[in-house]
## 1
Amino acid sequence: MDAFYASVEQRDDPSLRGKPVAVGSAAARGVVAAASYEARTFGVRSALPSVTALRRCPDLIFVRPRFDVYKAVSQQIHAIFADYTDLIQPLSLDEAYLDVTEDRRGLGTAWATAKEIRARILAETGLTASAGVSYNKFLAKLASDHRKPNGQFAVTPDMGAAWVETLPVSRFHGVGPVTAAKMQRLGIETGADLRAKSLDFLQQHFGSSAEWYHQIVRGIDERPVNPNRERKSSGSETTFSRDLTEDAEIEAAVLGQADDVWEWCERTQGFGRTATVKIKYADFQIITRSRSHTAPITSREQLHAASIALLRSVLPTPKGIRLVGVTVSNFERGLAEPLPLFGHADMA
């Protein structure tokens, strides 16, 4: 979906259309959950502290999130998907992989299937979606961003490897900012640069990830679309446009990531007993703080409390922070007895 949360708000409130909109809170401790395309032209992005977003775009309009509405729309969209295939692997409320090899509706091509799905989403929800069409998940994911918003792009088998070579490695799904920076230090800027490196070289510098990089740069990804994939953890992290040093800003960012994680937990009814906070400093040092409990985390407030308790074990910060993340793991399906508020953090 295109700018999903913000687009839902603009759909439901015509006065917001064509204006820079952020879903979130404008409070000093607020964080942007989603930004409209009008806001993105000013550099406003999800997980950005609200005070920073307002500095970049003084006319930014903040709208409180309505997760119940977003979930209802997501269910509409998944009902459309189900008319075309049973092989649906959700990534979030607004994104999923679909394997349409069976061609249930006799449309002839995956391109035609994606086009019809997008048209139905627009007709039934009033929202636009973009699609990537390809012969594997890695390429479809890359292609889905190529013609946003409201577009689709296909990567065919005869163009897959050559197309990947033209892209910057920072765009590759699974290559985060730290890995991209490391690749650049090794002279790897594009897919072509990555392909030129031997498997031995990649293993020397990237260890267990080397085989993955060696495969995807050749357009190879054998992972199936798995509708029954069991998640071992749910996490969210963000890299800031500038290093954060103020406790309030850092705590606001952690709460924003916790909200992203809780959205998934609530939607899937997957409740974990272990909360982890990740911090990456300006010098790229990474630390994590984690704590496991006897009962699952079963509310947003509990996850907030757990995340802040873990974070405060390393505050005040001795140096700038460039990234924070929150993860819940050790899942138990379904509700459990509420967990009490958290005490001291353990080191992980």
Note: The two ends are 36 Å apart (CA to CA).
## 2
Amino acid sequence: MSGDLAAESWSFTEASFQKFTISNFCSIQREIRESIESPTFPSGARDKNRRTLKIHSNGMDEESEGYLSVYLTLLSCPRRPVWTKFQFWINDSEGEVTKGMKHPRFFRFLENQQWSFRKFILRDFFLAQEPWLLEDNELSLRCKVTVVQDSFGFSNETMTPGIQVPRCTLSDELGELWENSFFTDCFLMVAGQEFHDHKAILAACSPVFRTMFEHDMEDSRRNRTEIQDLEPQGFRAMMGFIYNGKAPDLHSMADVLLAAADKYGLEHLRVMFKDALCKDLSVETAAHTLVLADLQSTGQLKTQALDFITSHASEVSEISCWKKMVGSYPHLLAEAYSSLASARCSLLEPPPKCLQQS
């Protein structure tokens, strides 16, 4: 398969043609030792990157001396890298393509990087064929630039073509099995409601369900299990996570599902809740988060909540949730008092009266 055909199998490619005309070329190339540069240009209607063509009339280095060297430079690119394939050619005085070169593969361009044909055409040959190659003493260098507009994150500079792999839909398909009760083999009773489930999926995700199904209990033999610590809404949210990884409402359901995640060994869900509660710490939520962390024995979350309360003691102590916590969980008041005292010990200041129990 050619490089052009291979590019079509990628996400999207865009090609453009550029013509770089240099008047009075023979005189210029005899006098100028530096490169001759074209105006900047994009590679297509959707391409925001800027490029330029350059010609060295007597090679770019010692190895290419005696040749015309041509190269393409990427001057700017908002999104890098840019994968580009290019080819150069010139037309003779009759308009026929001659002395063309192209690369069949794509190159990885970074900003201010260039790729070239160092030995594009022999200088002596070019001068000998001047009337045939240069019409009216003009050199018309043509260039085709093809850009991959949506590459797949290729890291190999040779960029061999590939097949676009569709998104894995396994989680969606497992979710449909549960939503439609397809091929279920057990029943879970939640607050009088019956839910149809799959033992293998529940056992794979939860060590508690695995143990429950392994034991030779009457409920297990009848494939019916009573769930006594969840309401239907919380159970549905937990099943949504088990079957397709769908995150429940981490804020409104934290009270219910943090405990469920802990009981059923859903560690990933448990960490998601802890992370959400840490990020959501505020004067209004700190006391409630401290209570949750204490009930679920999540030491890291508890430390974060205590640190926040220590830093905002005056504001937190005015919130009704704090006052309820003080009455129901006096040991947490003692822990908050200790944390605040430790933070202030270097200043030799007593804790403020606002944290004292009334």
Note: The chain has three domains: 3-148, 168-274, 281-358.
## 3
Amino acid sequence: MPQAYSLPKPNYFLAPRMASEHISKKRKTRCKDLHSNAFRAKEEDVWFDDGNIVLVAEDTPFRVHKGVLAAKSEIFRDTFSVPQPEYDDLLDGIPILRLLDNWVDVRNMLVGMYHSDRYLELKDGMEFSVVKSFSCLGTKYEVKAIRQEAIKRLRRCYPTSFKRYLAQAVEHVHPIKMTPTDAMEAVHIARLCDLPDILPSAFYQCTRLSMQKLLEGPQSSLISTSDLRAILEGRRKLAISSIIFLKDMMLKSPAIGCMSPDDCSREIRNGLSRVWDDLVETAGDLASEYHTVKLMGDSTCVSCALSLEWECERYYQETWDRLGEYFNVRP
């Protein structure tokens, strides 16, 4: 009789479920119910008539090959290498392996395994839901190729470099199709997959969201109380830092060599006052402030413009470098 399989306990932290809970303990779904859901897998080309294992996630079956899973995933390889007791949990005579994962995530993982050209060579616009599946299940089942692809794209969208962050606004090719609220899910992914380097940028982009979205949005449940506290505290610190910088710049004397000190001082004060007024609403929007302050040099002399540009570059780069401190993120 064919064997049924259960996954071994992995040697890494698995959240939000305990590592020993890979296999569903709910009632077994009847084979006819699995057959009715099999069209989902067939539509995505992850149902193979010659497959020798059926993965079932949320009652959705995927008929695939043990050899392919073992080659792509260390967890599946270990699973199939361990002798299993005989059991009658079968679909069309093929053993079933039940996974405690969302069926969409499992589908995305399998498509990434079997049809990597659809995603791994995609230069523009991978769906954020696919990135989530690749990073989370790629980590859980140790599927290195899709995990690395997801992390590469996440690091481009949530960079450690301020210049890289500014460049995203003018780029025509974006590695991930995202909405602003996806930053909350990016924080969740970073926590699950041990990606502390993307956390400062992801936290910062969460500060751009309204309180309503942070507290009541569809992804708000992904943010822990401690992370929400870090977002709000970080937003406060960014606003205070910007206020201090703007005040210092307003009181700063014109640059050495300035030919029109009164005119330049007036233009700089007027420009910084507008940024100050906007700060009440933007609360530390670094990109907006950076471009606004830098553009003020267009109405000053060359010496003051160069001094303003230098101060602007220095302050906003230093602020970006301190995001980890503002949001209490440990590298």
Note: The first helix runs from residue 31 to 43.
